[in-house]
Amino acid sequence: MKNIFCRTGLAFLWFAGALAAAPLGSAFLYQGRLIQQGQPAQGVHDLLFVLYDVPTGGTPLAGPVTNLQVSVSNGLFTTEVDFGASAFNGSALWLEVSVRPAGGGAFTRLDPRQPIQAVPHAWHAVNAGVAMALTANAVNTASLKDGAVTVSKIAPGQVVTSINGLRDAVSLSGTNGITVTASGNGLIIGGGAGGGSGWALSGNAGTTPGTHFLGTTDAQPLELRVNNTRFLRAEPTASVPNLIGGDSANLVFRGAVGAVIGGGGQGSEANAVGGSFGFIGGGRFNLVHSNANESAVVGGYANVIYTNTWSSFIGGGANNWIDSFSHFSVVGGGEDNYINTNSENAVIGGGRYNTVGVEAPAGWIGGGAYNSLLAGAASSGIGGGRYNTVGEDAAGSFIGGGLYNTNLANISVVGGGFSNLVSSMAYAATVGGGELNFIGNTDDATIAGGYYNYVDDDAHFGTVGGGGDNWIQPGAVYATIPGGAQAAAISFGQMAYASGMDSTWGDAQTSLYVARRITTNATTLELFLDGAGERMLVPTGGTWTFMAMVAARNTSGGSAGFRIEGVIKNVNGTVSLVGTPTVTALGSDIAGLGNPQAVADNTNKALVLRVTGVSGQRIKWVARVQTTELKF
Fold first, then answer.
1. CB-count burial class (<10 Å; 0-12, 13-18, 19+) for 402
2. Which of 537, 544, 543 lies closest to 605, judged by CA?
3. What is the reported pLDDT for 482?
4. Residue of 544, 552, 536, 543 lying closest to 493 (CA atoms)
5. Distances in Å between the alpha carbon of 511 and those of 407, 494, 496, 541?
6. Looking at the DSSP assignment, which residues form a beta bridge with residue 321?
7. In 3-state terms, what secondary structure has residue 502?
8. Nearest to 517 by CA among 533, 538, 495
């Protein structure tokens, strides 16, 4: 049976995206999430940032920048990072982050380094090719571009109707529904009722689709505002434009096309899309990473679809993640649900703290809380419940629900119940439900339910129908305990039943065995439980009464029947009969057929039935042996 344990230590899982930063200054906001030993970190931490121009190795370009006393709540943090203006020149850059608990100690580096997205580079773009400072009176007439001086660069009151003595007569008139009316030294310009070439406040008529439009004809973004605050932004790309609604901090990463953010976001908790044709409907602090193409987060808080995860979906909730290369995966909602990397086609319907492990493609969890598919549990599922686990590499297995159930085997099932276990080396095993039932390293075993029932190692095809504290012991292949309490099966094909025990399993029970053999001549042979070599084992300290009903038939239809009754015991490992068994011939029409015998086999510690055939005849023998068993 495999042990499961947690190794202590400090380990962090993180993601980050530098969201909107102010266009002035060189600092940018960095947002991220810290996970410590599988749970969101809490409290105050120190963070250290270093800038590189390669994803691994290399020499730092800037930093380190150390931010002390950064507050982390439910794993989430926001902090400002400033490497200076010269750090961002438009080249590809990577950010290395290290962390430690606030107050001292060594920093722990978080791998891998994260690529710098569009926003920090924007500071360079705004200032590219422009002198940062000029001395007074440094620009002469020759240095000015023709037509470069605009009205906004001329101080009020400096130009009225003449420049250097030149005067012009200007005539203004309205057209297309626009009116110009003199009013003293001023002009009043009025709009028409629609129908002209402009868009009127009262609406337009007579427009032609495809010819008339509201928008721009250059490659600049278009913004719509309410109360002078942006609520919608359309950004041109080389192909399909991006559409960004909601808070002005929401953004689409450079290089993405056809991306949509419907709304939501709030300041430092903005929504961001990095994948082409990616979608965020609303909510706050949601992120669809770069190259997570055609992936969507409908809403909620701090939900993330990681880079290189295509066509995946998070419906809502909070802190739900789909990791890299887990294409076509779904988290319906809930909180802190996580589909790990390389788990394509995985599903978590909802609930809390449910996890599909690494390389568990097509793994699924319907809901519940704290349920886990461990690494490699491909095509396995958990319907619901709490604290249920499908083990590492346990492919094609299932837990229906319940609490603290564990299924570590391939192609195996735990239907529900409490704290039931299927061991890792079992195969195609089933626990229907109940409590504290256990299947060892054995194939095709079944426990239907009940309490504390046990099918031990190598007891292949063993079955416990229910009851409590029943035990099919190692090697008892095809053994059955239908129910009851504290029965023990130790032999091949044994069916044992008890209603309790005095001091140990099987010390007060009855059992049923079926033995068989075929004779082809007058040789004496032993009947076996499997027809080949499995015997009825008498345990040390055991005393049995037995009754064997023996049937025989030859190929011509000749038949015979016998009853054998007796007592057998095992004292300190020595097996012997008590008295002489009684053999009764119930009837026979097979000429020359002798009576069967019951024998104590001290070598194999077993009760043996022996039969003698008839020369030249093929005879099939079957015995049903019922025992009353005690141990003392």
1. buried
2. 537
3. 98
4. 536
5. 31, 7, 4, 16
6. 304, 338
7. coil
8. 533
Percent of the chain topping pLDDT 70 = 84
In a domain, 198, yes or no: no
Structural tokens at position 260: 């949509």
DSSP H or E run through 80: strand 76-81
In a domain, 352, yes or no: no
Model pLDDT for residues 96-138, shown as the tens digit of each residue: 999 999 888 898 898 888 888 655 554 444 444 444 445 566 5
Total structural domains within the chain: 3
Neighbours of 252 (CB within 10 A): 28
Peptide bond into 112 cis (omega under 30): yes
Do 197 and 214 contact (CB within 8 A), yes or no? no
Same domain, 123 and 227: no
Instruction: Tell me the β-bridge partners of 352.
Output: 335, 369
3-state secondary structure of 244: strand
Residue 7 pLDDT greater than 70, yes or no: no
**Which CATH number is 70's domain given?**
2.60.40
Task: Let me know the angle formed at the C-alpha of 410 by 406 and 416, rounded to the nearest 5 degrees.
Answer: 35
How far is 627 from 6, CA to CA, in rounded Å?
Answer: 48
Token pair, residue 509, equals 């029970």
The greatest distance separating any two alpha carbons of the chain, rounded to the nearest whole angstrom, comes to: 148
Q: Of the residues 80, 95, 127, which one is the last residue of a structural domain?
A: 127
Per the structure block, which two tokens stand in for 455? 């099918």
The vertex-397 CA angle with 395 and 399, nearest 5°, equals 145
Q: Which two tokens stand for residue 345?
A: 């086609």
| Nearest-angstrom CA–CA distance, 29 and 23 | 12
* Beta-bridge mates of residue 421: 406, 438
DSSP helix/strand/coil, 85: helix
For 13-51, the pLDDT digits (tens) are 343 444 333 445 677 778 888 888 878 889 999 999 999
Amino acid at 438: F
Domain that holds residue 66: 12-127
Closest of 34, 21, 29 to residue 98, by C-alpha: 34
